[in-house]
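Collaborator request, handled under Task 6.
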Amino acid sequence: MIDFDLYKLFYNVAKYGSLSKAAEELFISQPAASQSLRQLEKQLDTTLFNRVHHGMELSAQGGEIIFDDVEKAVKLLNGVEEKLAALKQNATGTLRIGASETIFQYILSEKIVQYNERYPQVKIELISETSPKIIALMKMDECDIGFLNLPIADDEDIVIKKSVSYLNDIFIAGERFSELKGKSLSVQDLQKYPLLLMEEHTVSREAVSRYGVSHGVSFKPAVEVNSWGFMKHLVMNGMGIGCIPREYSMNKIENGSLFELNVAPAMPVRSVGLALPKNVNMTFALQSFINLFSEETLK
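Structure tokens returned to the collaborator:
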């Protein structure tokens, strides 16, 4: 079997007239390069180079005879690699991304724009659904990658690769409850006020329910909503106190439309996870999108 790496080494030694320069070019150590060159000479049963004071030169009975053919082969292989690299830089196809509307808006929007700028030939299909629905679509091969509210139950068909954002659930209120600004509240105190919570069977609702139970409280919402935007609208209009990730409400808090209640202890931190089907077809388009999140420090 032909080891093309040995011939690449031979070509680079001949090209630079230096074993150390060839090793540097190929990102290998000089001892490893020397050993590989001896291996090739042993296989061919001939001396390929003469060691001279200024470096290495092709031997008349070995290196000079094969150099032209090796040069053609190496350049041909380099051309193949360049073509594949160019193909990857012009990835095509469709990338199907699943997430909730809020995750798209607050976590993924900039990444999607960045990806589109790098790979404009890739068609992006956005699937706005709840985490359980996204999981079901990935199992049916109708979604390539999902961004899920964690934690979720273990599923042998779904792999959580990493957390891409942390979520800090807080309680918020509008001007109607201005007397609560700066006031320290306990979990039990929240029962005195009308609560606006996400609808049942959502990750966020389960999180706040567990939080309440852990402190001896069973929250009974005055209103159940199905979107964070609607919750913020109702809270701003005085319908009650809402529970929402701080990351999804910062714009309203900063402009004074809403304020964060000082409730102790704070709710446990949640996260949004990047999920893939267990036996995903890792296309270049998909891997490139995942790589965008590897550029961040959050793991």
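The cover message to the collaborator said: "The chain has a mean pLDDT of 90. The first strand starts at residue 49 and ends at 52. Please let us know whether this matches your experimental observations."
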